[in-house]
Design a protein that fits this description.
92% helix; single chain; 4 helices; mainly alpha; Helix Hairpins; 188 residues
Length: 188
């Protein structure tokens, strides 16, 4: 029983020395730091994943763009060949063979290269859209990380300074981080 009274006196002394702060403030703040740190780890993981999506999307877009440029060069060469064959066929008695070859080149462009061109253009637009989406998500997650980091700092300082209002400010920062994390995961 005497130990219990001693502990109560200790708590009262701590309460008085702490400027009126409740006796378990340090434990509450330490728990807040741990929870906010866990949320920070989660936001960091998702932020890194979003960044990977950005990089992968940019790589896919660059590859599709290179294929598109290659296809357009093929189209230009095929047109040039068709024009050359027509010009050469006009001057020779067997011009009908050259004209047939020219039509064959034009058909190749119409049947194979132009549809591939349209497909690659669509693929580039889809990749660009995915990259924009991942960039937006990454930004929101980075802002959530900042809010969690500020919350951790404020909660840590509240332990040292023994000020509950700093712990409340840490809660506000952590709440902002949770809101940004939620927006990034559900709405972006």
């Amino acid at each position: 029983m005497e130990a219990h009274r001693s502990y109560e006196r200790f708590e009262q002394g701590q309460h008085a020395a702490g400027g009126g702060e409740p006796p378990h403030h340090a434990q509450t703040a330490a728990l807040a730091v741990a929870v906010i740190a866990a949320l920070l780890a989660l936001a960091t993981f998702f932020s890194n994943e979003a960044l990977k999506e950005v990089i992968t999307g940019e790589t896919h877009g660059a590859t599709a763009h290179a294929r598109l440029e290659s296809n357009r060069v093929k189209i230009d060469i095929a047109r040039g060949n068709a024009t050359l064959l027509r010009a050469l066929g006009a001057d020779t008695p067997s011009g009908s063979g050259a004209a047939a070859k020219a039509r064959e080149h034009e058909m190749r462009v119409g049947e194979h290269l132009r549809p591939a061109d349209a497909h690659l253009s669509g693929e580039i637009e889809a990749d660009r859209s995915e990259v924009d989406h991942a960039n937006s998500k990454h930004l929101a997650l980075e802002l959530a990380e900042v809010a969690f980091e500020v919350g951790i700092v404020l909660a840590s300082v509240s332990i040292i300074a023994r000020r509950r209002w700093l712990l409340g400010a840490a809660g506000v920062a952590a709440t902002a981080g949770v809101a940004l994390l939620t927006v990034a995961m559900l709405f972006i």
